[in-house]
Records
---
Amino acid sequence: MFYFLLPPLLAVIGIVALPTRAVLAQDSAVAGNSARTAGVRRITLEQVKHTVDPAVNPAARLAQLSLDAAKQHRLGVEADYFPKFGAAFANLHFTSFLGEVLEVRRPLLGVTSQVPVPILSQDQTIAALTFTQPLTPLLVVHQAVRIARADERIAAAKAVVASTANVRKAELEEIYFQLLIAQCRLKLGVSAKESFSAIAKVKELTTSLNKAMGWPEDTQLELVPPDPLIENLSLEEVANKSAAANPEVIEAEQTVVKARAAAKIAKLAYVPTIAAVSGYLFQNAIPAMPNNFGYGGVVASYNLFDFGKREHAIKEARDQLGMAEIALQMTKAKVSAQLQKSYMELERARQLSNVAQRMGSSASLLMKVSANPESSEVQAAHAGLEVEMLEADLAHRQAFANLKAPLGE
């Protein structure tokens, strides 16, 4: 897109007037001293990016709360590994005598006596301490923990995606470059209508950056041109990272883990429920029993017949596991194709940016031998080529960001 500038540049004494980024930085520093005296604020791209505060991002906050909830759920499920201690207390009074009144004849005395025989006490106090340690249910707990941990990993992957701090930085980076480009276009010697449009664009973008920095909207800004993006990311590195870091792949993998654990839980329905129990009891409800005693042992229960419910549950879990495994393969294939496409776009943007930077370096050398480097034609050519360099660098940065986003970076 910047090749159309070559003929006009060669026509203007065969010279293009664009210095390198180092020369531009020096020029900006010199201009900045006088600009600051006039109330112009000089900023860099890094200063703009550092204004992003992830703590005030509601999407990131929501994702963090979801992650915390998943973590607490997993810790709650893990608590089922440990024994359960319980306590109970009751103090009751019954309005009637709970027992039998027996008549006893006394032949020697020739009388009949009534003797009350309580079966349960009319005033009862019961206090109990219990201890229960599940045994076979621990197998189910183990699989439930795996499901909860998988949900936590999915929530963590989604939290990375939902955190728009990097997205906001990319937006501010684009505004920064667009403002630089708009400022350069004002130097191109365009028509009055185009000049008016460029001035309005500069004002709009300046207002956006001032809001991001927390400055007054009418603050004039002097932007320091950033160094071109330099990266050497290879397709092999992208392929190696895709399966491990992509949020979609992580969710699909953890869904398989959950489905496999659910299938095992369905099979464990055929295992009896066995638990070890013990405790201590104080009671006066049954007079014939001691007031204080302890106990311990094992309890077991088993559902003998459930009309095929367990069998159907196992088949359902098996089908869901198969679905999850197929979905994982499809997700990996889709992500791989997406990353290859994004890498091709990155490579194309990288090449265009490199060509633009080399042209700029060559132009700075030609400017030194120009007969009239301050002429309006040379200045316009300088601004036009600088616009092309900035656009190429911005496209390179955007392609790089689009590639790294699916990698969870």
Note: DSSP finds eleven helices and eight strands in the chain.
---
Amino acid sequence: RWVPAARDIKPDAVKEITFYELADAKGAAIGYAFVAEGQGYQGTIKILTGLDTSLENLLGIEILESVETPGLGQRINDEDFRKQFINLKVSSHIECVKSDTSDENQIKAITGATVSSRAVVNILNEEIEKIRPCIQKEK
């Protein structure tokens, strides 16, 4: 055995980090795309995420999968919520606030769906932290 104390290998515990380069119409690199996934209020949330080439700003997000509460948590799919992530600073962690935003790294939580809003932010923060070194290594 390569790890004497190990009795089992759990393949689903190993997460492969995959990202794709994004290019504009002329073929110039503008950033990277990846899927961020984690626990929401009701279940898994999967988010297609765009990060610029500096790795300091989000280009935008798209919710790919969500089973959040209809009428409340499902509002994470609404354009008004998602557009807050366009050009959002991620050089420090994204913050989810209940009032109007005052910093470049803050988004306003959806009224009545703070848990789902925070889940999106937590998922993004965790995945950006994991993927940043992988992208930097490939640059």
Note: The beta strands are 20-23, 29-39, 44-52, 58-65, 95-97, 106-108.
---
Amino acid sequence: MNICRFNGGRIGVVLGDVVADITDRLPVTGHDEPALRIAGLTVARRQALVDAAPRIAATGLAFSSPVLRPGKVVAAPVNYRAHIDEMLASGQSHGHTITDIRQAGLFLKASSSVVGPSEGIAQRFLERRTDHEIELCAVIGRPAANVGASEALRYVAGYCLGLDITVRGPEDRSFRKSIDTYCVLGPWLVTSDAMPDPDAVDLTLTLNGTVRQQANTSDMVLGVAELIAFASRFYTLHPGDVLMTGTPAGVGPIRPGDVLLAQGSGLGSMSVRVRAADASAA
């Protein structure tokens, strides 16, 4: 099931070219994560909500991040070997030369950087190179601490696409990657029961219509389950936490006016516009 947030916080289920608006069928509190609440229901209960909900056309809806308030955004810095090679060859690593993810570890992006595709990317520091990075993201559904890889996927509520936008430079990764709007999540949350194998997802990113990144998550050094197990050894993962699993080769610079199209098999697609941070949203 594809669970979305749209048009200022309404909650829906995407059914092809229409959305079942279940907002009024599932009241939530200000501290709730609507997508996680729905994902945690039985399939029969979810279907009952959808059957009773009005339909609206998906075209023209403004999709927000499916996760409203992630406590943590955990990210993998070097999880595709081809991306490691390209960064070393490009000279953009700025001394960050650790090429083993088990040595590099994971890093945190500020949750304040999270936006949905309709909000777009407000680019700062236009004099510096800023890159696009498409990623598969796993959203945690229940607390996970010191879990083994064999059971790790049971803790996932669902999956979505992510864009990890990155200013290149010598500063710490978390600092350069935590700018407002530099974590785009969407277009919706695909419940884990609808994606049995997250390590077999095709990812494609186009920039202004030209393919820039294209890979399958089977190319990852550590798969999703291994990453969850790795992260949970260092801190408890809580419901709503987002795990960004790393980006493949093909990263490249963005500029205001660019349009990014991120696509993933089984995950849908999201079009994201880039604008200058001091300009009004287009």
Note: Helices lie at 34-39, 43-51, 81-90, 101-104, 173-176, 224-232.
---
Amino acid sequence: MHFDLVSLIQSFGYVGIIGIVFAESGLLFGFFLPGDSLLITAGLLAARGHLNIYLLIILSSVAAIVGDSVGYWFGRRVGHRIFNRKEGLFFHEKNIQKAEEFYKKHGGKAIILARFMPFIRTFAPIVAGIGKMDYPRFLAFNVIGGLFWVLLTSLFGYFIGNLIPNIDRYILVVIAVIVGLSVLPSAVHFYKENKVLINGKLRKLLLSFRA
């Protein structure tokens, strides 16, 4: 999916872009969606005349902001039911108290920075809701983060599209590099934070194959 973003955008247009940005920003299952690379690719296509850059920025910003708000209220209403597993890979009951303390102290900065971190981008508003972060405060940083994220990613793609001649020939390579660079830091961080749990599950998986 990551490497066929051009076809996806050309097939579904603004509706596809809005749907993916919304889902990745606030729906629990959206953590695997390619938000960064999608918007950069959309910017590249806008530079080639396939999309309107202004309409892209407006619609994507609204989708990102609304998506985070949905994620926040999802976390606030039903988040505690999800975090009741003792050994879940993504959800731990002990993380609720950490989330509450973290968002009381660093909530605004966390919401903005999370926009630029794949995987974390999806879970940040949900955890903010679980941590009972004040919603007006959350919304203010949500708007700032959403606008900043969409502007940087889409305009970066738009700039590259105008800068490099015949970008169409290299677009798949550019997207592959962008995806790798954007996912790697979060993957490394996630592994370090869950090293024991991940290694334990891998051992169980290998043992099951041997059996």
Note: The chain has a mean pLDDT of 76.
